[in-house]
Amino acid sequence: MVRNYKVITLCGSTRFKDEFLRVQKELTLQGNIVISVGLFGHSGDAEVWENMDEGTLTKTKEMLDDMHKRKIDMADEIFVINVGGYIGDSTKSEIEYAKSTNKKVNFLEP
């Protein structure tokens, strides 16, 4: 908590950009500090990857994955955007990490 505000990190596939934005607004209006993804690599930020060679692409993805775990470190809990029940490998890793650090895990869909 930061003062009276719970801190929640959003996790999930970046293909669900619209859902990320909707949930971010809802949780913010409920009085939470929301930490989200830095870019939507699967839905709208393709230009980020266009001119990267394979080595740079791999290093960038590794950095973004690690950075998201640091966002989980800053949070009280995570909220998983699992549209249609979909949870990819990166999100599974984030859920496992959150649980290993005793963070509460909530899901958009059961």
Structure overview:
Helices cover 42% and strands 16% of the residues. The model has no long low-confidence stretch (mean pLDDT 92). By secondary structure, it is of the alpha/beta class. It has helices at residues 17-29, 54-74, 89-100; strands at 7-12, 33-35, 77-81, 104-107. Strand 1, helix 1 and strand 2 (33-35) form a beta-alpha-beta unit. It has a four-stranded parallel beta sheet, sandwiched between helices.
SSE blueprint:
Elements: E1 7-12, H1 17-29, E2 33-35, H2 54-74, E3 77-81, H3 89-100, E4 104-107
Helix pairs in contact: 2-3
Head-to-tail CA distance between termini: 25 Å
Order of helices and strands: EHEHEHE
The profile of the biggest β sheet is: 4 strands, parallel
The average pLDDT score comes to: 92
Strand content is 15-25%
Count of extended strands: 4
Q: Structural class given helices, strands, pairing?
A: alpha/beta
Shape: globular
Percent helix, as a range, is 40-55%
| Number of helical segments with 4 or more residues | 3
Task: Briefly characterize the structure.
This protein has 110 residues and is an alpha/beta fold. It is 42% helix and 16% strand.
What labels would you give this structure?
110 residues, alpha/beta, four-stranded parallel β-sheet, 4 strands, 16% strand, globular
